Amino acid sequence: PPHVWALKELDKLGQEKLWQTGEVKSYYSRLTDIARTYIELRYHIPAMEQTTEELMSSLHKGVMKQSLKKELNEVLVLSDFVKFAKAQPDFLENENSLKVIKDFIDKTKQLEEAKKAEQHKPV
Fold first, then answer.
1. Engineered SS bond to 39: which of 17, 47, 75, 99, CB 3.0-4.6 Å?
2. What is the pLDDT of residues 23-48, one digit of tens each?
3. Chain-wide mean pLDDT for the chain?
4. Per DSSP, what are the bridge partners of residue 64?
5. CA dist., res. 12 & res. 4, Å (int)
6. Rounded mean pLDDT of 92-110?
7. Residue 102 forms beta bridges with which residues?
8. Between the CA of residue 120 and those of 1, 103, 107, what are the distances in Å?
9. Which residues, other chains included, contact 54 with Cβ-Cβ below 8 Å and sequence gap of 6+?
10. SS3 letters for 74-113?
11. Among 120, 108, 113, 118, residue whose Cα is nearest residue 45
12. Mean pLDDT throughout 84-89?
């Protein structure tokens, strides 16, 4: 399942300590690639080919809670700044970005499992 793959990849990314060794751009590139690939697999949205703004509008209301979408957007926008404007987030932002993406995957994965359980409930 997409969430199993994505969470494994995030664990690997965390262990590589890229931003701690000055590889901030690589860290954010990998982080957003994992998040976008997960979104493609989970929601069937071409997230890798879309800008952050396009992706956010693809994840319209009803697909997920606004609070999840807001946090995801903040990480993707920060990542864009790192990759294209040479922004240098502090260590808290770097650690929090990974946590936000993990939480996003956990919460969207759980929604999927809850829906399946709901569908198989006897009436």
1. 47
2. 999 999 999 999 999 999 999 999 99
3. 89
4. 61
5. 13
6. 93
7. none
8. 19, 26, 20
9. none
10. HHHHHHHHHHHHCCCCCHHHHHHHHHHHHHHHHHHHHHHH
11. 108
12. 94
